[in-house]
Amino acid sequence: MPIYLDRDLSNHKTDPALRSIDIGLINNMPDGALKTTEHQFIRLLDSAAEGMLVRLSFYALPDVPRADSGRQHIRSFYSNIDTLWDRRLDGLIMTGCEPHASNLRDEPYWASMTKVIDWAEQNTTSAVWSCLAAHAAVLHCDGIARRRLDQKRCGVFEFSRLAAHPLTAGLSSLMAMPHSRWNDLPEDQLTSSGYRILTRSQAAGVDAFVKQGKSLFVYFQGHPEYEAETLLLEFSRDLKRYQRGESTTYPEMPQGFSNRDDPWRSAAQHMYRNWLAYLCARKNDQLRKRPDRESAALHRAASAD
């Protein structure tokens, strides 16, 4: 069943029915992070949804490798991805997942992921692609391949707001954002392919960027949804992998890390609030135009008679 994130609608003059937004979250995180990721996005969307009713449905790509426990959780609490193809959603969020191949096109879930990307272009007002999903989307849409970094880019970095855009409206010129990734996208190739860079750091590169097609595609190389302890948990996981001999790289402590607070929370909430407001405004515009279209259709039918 969908999850309703309901705020107090009584203080708004707008008809609450026009402020209801349908969002799908495709959660591809590893089994151990499924529930944590659900909680993070629920908390973030709930805090960002001021005056808007958000109906959130969970999905997962069927060919992401999972143990029995992960498959059982998805069967119990997620909608079948096949039910998505005949739907239209206001917004879609797709998380990254743990890579197993150096080339994303060789991942077992590549065909499913690209099918979602193509579907989202035609059937959403806007879609958010997070981390690996962002890398997959730009590779699929524009052939831009990510580059392997010498060291994992993990920590909380300071980013500058570069462009005036509805998603960054009201944000300060500098903001913190957590990143945790082994790969990076070349900024020059993004800009030459029509992507608009919203936030960037000298230390961590591009953070958020967008491209407008039939749907507004929003890309995050970082993780606005993360909570304070998430980076530490990832460091502990990477350290155990090194100790077991599964990795040859000793992990560095996350840069700028503090497990006592999450200094990016305000910026993350603000950016997602802007995204929800964008979805709401576009949906309201479409609903207002519908009576005009229906009236015109009736007039044409009457004229034909």
Kindly describe this structure.
The protein is of the alpha/beta class and 305 residues long. It has one domain (3-150, 182-226, 267-297): 3-Layer(aba) Sandwich (Rossmann fold), CATH 3.40.50. 36% of the residues lie in helices and 25% in strands. The chain contains seven helices and ten strands. It has helices at residues 34-48, 68-77, 110-123, 132-142, 187-192, 230-243, 265-304; strands at residues 3-5, 20-26, 53-59, 89-94, 124-130, 147-161, 174-184, 196-201, 205-212, 216-220. It has a ten-stranded mixed beta sheet, with helices on both faces. Helix 1 (34-48) packs across helix 7 and helix 3 crosses helix 4. It is globular. The termini are far apart. Residues 6-16 have low confidence and may be disordered.
CATH top-level class = Alpha Beta
Alpha-beta classification: alpha/beta
The domain tally reads 1
Average pLDDT works out at 89
Number of distinct beta strands: 10
